[in-house]
Write the structure tokens for this entry.
Amino acid sequence: MDEKIKQALIDIVGEDNYTDSLIDMVSYSYDASEYSQRPSCAVWVETAEHVSNILKLANREHIPVVPRGAGTGLTGTATPVRGGIVLDLSRMNKIIKISIEDRLAIVQPGVVYADLEKALAHYGFFFPPDPASGTVCTLGGNVATNAGGVKGAKYGTTRDYVLGLQVVLPDGRIMRTGSRTMKSVSGYDLTKLFVGSEGTLGVVTEIILKINPKTTAATTSMATFDNLEDAGRAVSQIMYSGIIPSVLEILGRDTIMAINQNTDLDLPEVDAILLAETDGYTTGETDFQMEKIMEVFKKNNAGEVKKAKSQEEASELWVARKSAYAVLSRIKTHVVLEDVTVPMAKIADLLKGIKAISKKHNIMIATYGHAGDGNLHPQFVYDGYDPEQVKSKGAASAELFQLTVDLGGTLTGEHGIGLQKAPFMTLEHDPAAMNVMRGIKRLLDPNNILNPGKMALDK
Amino acid sequence: MDEKIKQALIDIVGEDNYTDSLIDMVSYSYDASEYSQRPSCAVWVETAEHVSNILKLANREHIPVVPRGAGTGLTGTATPVRGGIVLDLSRMNKIIKISIEDRLAIVQPGVVYADLEKALAHYGFFFPPDPASGTVCTLGGNVATNAGGVKGAKYGTTRDYVLGLQVVLPDGRIMRTGSRTMKSVSGYDLTKLFVGSEGTLGVVTEIILKINPKTTAATTSMATFDNLEDAGRAVSQIMYSGIIPSVLEILGRDTIMAINQNTDLDLPEVDAILLAETDGYTTGETDFQMEKIMEVFKKNNAGEVKKAKSQEEASELWVARKSAYAVLSRIKTHVVLEDVTVPMAKIADLLKGIKAISKKHNIMIATYGHAGDGNLHPQFVYDGYDPEQVKSKGAASAELFQLTVDLGGTLTGEHGIGLQKAPFMTLEHDPAAMNVMRGIKRLLDPNNILNPGKMALDK
């Protein structure tokens, strides 16, 4: 890093909050994606004014700035592809306010998801998105990628809970969006524009979140299917039962096998397992809903249909589901977790298509995911040191994206575009939409300093 | 209208779909607000291509275009303040698709809310926002103003249900946003940018809506309060009970009196009545929730607390609530329905403030609204032919907006900004936010042809 710039950064954040040491630069070159590239330096910011002053400097000097939370993103959003400054927000980790009577929490972006969960649990409340990386990921990252999780079908994603933001714009101006109210239609919805914008439009320095009371009862069940199409049809037919399960997850055969090889859960080795949860305040209510769902399973040729008899039995099923990513990651040297989402009625077609793509390219693709909102996570398992397998993986991904879009779906349900899907943006979005997105980027960030190279916005 | 332009418009939509007759121009000069001004002509459009060709022409010739649904907006959004072309979308009224298995409906903007309700009821589904004007308002208008209703606290507003749009941009380009999936984080959230943008950024020609299954059980109760502060505190304390009521409405004394004078409902004449509904699939569930809410009512010094014994008794209470606007409208020559929204814990302060403003300016302000999400509707009742009362009304409104913002609230929960609140936008939004909104407007509509004069965007 240029000495003058380095000094200016140190003047802003202090010596202890600046680093350009090799070991830190290597650490900051990675996130949880397959990409990596080193920044020139990193700074830990502690206030919105820090962020503002850094962006003013970077904007004047045309230096790339990459905002970063915990670096758990799977698409390369926090990878500094053009070098520059990594803006580490993890020290802005205060829960500013929890106001149950107003049904909201106000937090800094570096607060870890699980820390907010803990604080809210005290009041019987929670913040529903529940990303799989919840124990480590930060709320700023959740906002940047519009993170979601297993409760998406019933409770939505991060976007549905962000009431307002404090954002530092690329030119250093500090802006407030939204409000502390449950609803507002005062002016354009700037809040939602920043949610999911992957740090390309501004740096979020404060978040106002709507929170939910926790329901106190739940019923869990599982159903096995010897046939992917039956499982897919069961998912879309649940809608006709008039019930929205609080969770509806699918595990494909490869995923089930990997779980069995790595745990003692002994799941039935079938083509697909569906796991469902219903929630409410009384077991009468949750059982009533589950009965309807189990009827749908049976009508669609489920083999075994089983209601969990106890909280322990239910927990075991969720442990199985939650272990999927980890157990699949052990099989070969590399994994890439995909995130395609289709209209629910197309889930069976997507599952069949994934099977065909896997066979054609001779690459393991183990599928699981949030069937209840059509969001599947096909996990590519391969040897990233073998150029042939890397090539196969690339070709298979491209076919998966094309298939998804052909089925009326979207490239990403909850992980974002980042670097990984930037080349595929135009598959999904028409020229006018691409043009408007790029126009908004240029409007707010004319020097393209904020997280450049992501989301296909630089064209 | 210039003869050449008139002919060009007729060439686009056909003779039957064009009018500049005096009677039509007078009709189109109004919406449900206090404003009116005549356009130069109106056209009924039938396709996105019609809209595209008209916008190309208008953009070339710099002619204002005001999109219009049913004209039920309360803030002047559909009033053609600078003349030009009214684009009447009411004939684009096809329900294109209802797909229960995908949990969505695809509609044209001119579909009346109630018509979609009817179509969905057949499947046991509904579109939750439920605006008070639902029997006549159009879904395009709902999207343009992000309409809400009595179920907002639990089910959100229109924004929460719009998955994707087809939008014609001011230069005539036809764009798709979002998708047919339950969730997506692919690129910027252009969909939500258009929701609530009041026809200033583009003309919506197709809407993809998420829909909900209808719950099958409900419990209704009412509680009376001799003291506004007790009622306000009860509302915010319900959150501590861990229950989100499906409806939680408030009626103030003036509203109660007006209802009693105009109906045979014979409501208790107290300072405030709260009406609550809980929903679910079993009465065990809805009663359980209601018990918790009624405890909160009692703890906060409610006078009478009564659970409706039958569906009829519950219906009567909702009829009372729904009659408020109409009965208050009969008292004097003019009414203006406000729409301020505050954090729930501030409801008591807002109610007290409204009482003080009413007294100070000697103007009747009858309050009711959606207590469950902090959205109150103070209804100004006055003689609009008396310049003194008009002046008082203006001064009282300005004080109400200032009070709302001082309480951390927003100018509008569900009606929008339009003309009515344009002068107050900067009370709520900081200079950076105003600048970004205006920048987005200029980016998409550089000639300011789409609904000019609204939302304080022309500066």
Summary: DSSP finds 16 helices and 18 strands in chain A. The CA atoms of residues 245 and 278 of chain A lie 5 Å apart. Residues 217-323 of chain A form a domain with the Alpha-Beta Plaits fold (CATH 3.30.70.2190).
